[in-house]
Design a protein that fits this description.
Keywords: NAD, Oxidoreductase. With 510 residues, this protein is α/β, with parallel strands linked by helices. It contains 22 helices and 16 strands. α11 packs across α18, α19 (449-465) packs antiparallel against α20 (469-477) and α20 (469-477) crosses α22 (493-505). The longest helix is centred in the middle third of the chain and has 24 residues, at 299-322. It is globular, with a radius of gyration of 23 Å.
């Protein structure tokens, strides 16, 4: 059985042509080729953007509303295998939308053909520079995780790749500025999808810091501010990625081709973007009938989603992995772990939100139903990447709510923090960091290299000095490079964390 490629796409289009879904048939048959002029640069090759943004581009193209193509690159060198896999499939992949829509089971296959280019910027830096100088380029979309939009001083060496995402953008914008003589109409629209508060503002601020570091002209920095738009946005869709192997093999047998980049997503989707509705002419997703909202404020959308949906993910993930649980649904169906998540969200997180409590409770129940989607198998290991930065954004504000009132942390949030720290009790083995679950099984931990080194060193020192668990907890909580503040000063938090660790040592896992 061959892998998905352009020839397979033509065959799939013929098969889909027998169905009433004519748009899907046209798209699959190649009516909208993936060699269209590049109008979008996508920084992020992972499951989420492919199951969210790229699907939206495909839907808009099927309706004749959007005619540009997407160039995709990875933000980190480690993403090269997925770029290679995309090129090995003629930059095509299959998205299965599967779940419950208004209580009814839904399963749709979409063949996504929006990528005009897929390349590794660390191997072909000049290709990325040429793209930045292209007159057709209009939009930059990204998902580099919360840790990606961060300022870390970095030297500018002409001709060599820049590691950080904001640093890349600063340099690429400078090349664009030079290429078009600072023309006001040649700026770009930036749509960061990272789950970071005011993500557009944060990206713009970091870009300007790099420009100042490198001594780029003041006129250029003014052009960055006046000619470019850095929009704050919030995304919401569960994209589970590759399904379990049994389901994948069943689909491959049915479709007649294999797809190493097969991706599964739920039907629900929301993209709230802080910008004027007229921008839909440039990115016509709302016009295509998608749940894209142009709004003058993201705050209500952001706060409820980040604190409840994403917060619950980050709450459950370290503890679930330590307990040997593999999937979100499996955890939520567990009598003890599922109750822990529901109780913590309902009794500890929702009361910290400044919105009607009944509305927040209704939203939380909707989220839990999405977690229990029988058709999506969302791996905790996929959610676990960069859990420290995720915790800072998603759960730390709820903990801080109680600390600022001089109160001890509620039990569930304290346990979530204890699980996070225990999850990061790691050691370096060759080129990766690994931790050990409660049952002795080993797991890989993916995070910012500096954060991993800090945590590994702290746990190693705890073992060598034989300090008490509370001393270890206090030292970890005091690390401002991890949290942005000294958490060891919060009332009784170190003692609470140490107490939870003691319970786990005795075999009590929640």
């Amino acid at each position: 059985m061959n892998k998905l490629n352009r020839q397979q796409l033509q065959a799939a289009g013929a098969a889909l042509g027998q169905s009433p879904d004519k748009h899907a048939a046209n798209a699959a048959a190649g009516a909208y080729p993936n060699d269209a002029p590049v109008t979008v640069l996508q920084i992020g090759e992972g499951n989420f953007l492919r199951g969210f943004f790229d699907w939206m581009v495909q839907e808009s193209r099927k309706q004749g509303l959007f005619r540009g193509g997407v160039a995709v690159t990875q933000p980190r060198p480690s993403g090269k295998p997925k770029i290679d896999a995309l090129n090995g499939q003629d930059r095509l992949y299959t998205l299965v939308i599967r779940g419950l829509d208004n209580g009814e089971p839904v399963e749709r296959r979409e063949l996504i053909s929006v990528f005009a280019e897929a390349f590794d910027p660390y191997e072909d830096w000049q290709r990325l520079v040429r793209l930045a100088e292209s007159p057709e380029l209009r939009i930059v979309v990204s998902n580099t995780t919360e840790a990606g939009i961060a300022y870390r001083p970095e030297a500018l060496t002409e001709g060599e790749p820049i590691v950080s995402y904001p640093g890349k953008i600063a340099y690429l914008l400078y090349r664009r500025y030079l290429a078009f003589g600072g023309a006001a109409d040649r700026g770009l629209l930036f749509l960061p999808c990272e789950l970071l508060d005011r993500n557009g503002d944060a990206l713009k601020e970091a870009v300007l810091k790099y420009a100042a570091d490198w001594g780029l002209p003041e006129a250029f920095r003014e052009w960055v501010t006046t000619a470019n738009r850095f929009l704050n946005s919030l995304v919401d869709r569960i994209v589970a990625g590759y399904p379990d192997q049994e389901q994948a093999e069943a689909w491959f047998a049915e479709w007649g081709y294999r797809d190493d980049l097969l991706c599964v997503a739920e039907p629900y989707h929301l993209w709230a973007i802080e910008g004027e509705p007229e921008l839909d002419e440039l990115l016509p997703f709302a016009s295509a009938g998608l749940n894209v909202v142009w709004t003058d404020t993201l705050e209500p959308y952001r706060k409820r989603k980040v604190r409840i949906l994403n917060g619950a993910h980050t709450l459950m993930t370290p503890l679930g992995i330590l307990c040997g649980v593999e999937y979100v649904r499996e955890l939520m169906e567990d009598e003890t772990l599922g109750a822990f998540v529901r109780r913590t969200v309902g009794e500890e997180i929702i009361p910290t939100l400044p919105y009607p409590q009944d509305e927040m409770a209704a939203y939380a129940n909707e989220v839990f139903d999405r977690y229990l989607n029988p058709f999506v198998r969302h791996r905790l290991s996929d959610i676990a990447m960069n859990s420290v930065s995720k915790f800072k954004v998603r759960l730390l504000p709820s903990l801080e709510h109680y600390a600022l009132k001089g109160e001890r942390a509620p039990d569930g949030l304290a346990r979530g923090l204890a699980a996070l720290l225990r999850y990061y009790r790691v050691r370096q083995e060759e080129n990766e960091y690994r931790g050990t679950a409660f049952d002795g099984r080993s797991y890989a931990v993916r995070d910012d290299a500096e954060a991993l080194a800090t945590l590994a060193a702290a746990w190693d020192e705890a073992g060598r000095t034989r300090e008490t668990p509370e001393e270890t907890a206090g030292r970890l909580l005091a690390c401002e490079t991890l949290w942005g503040k000294d958490l060891s000063q919060w009332p009784g938090l170190a003692a609470q964390v140490a107490q939870v660790w003691a319970e786990w040592t005795k075999g009590e896992r929640t």
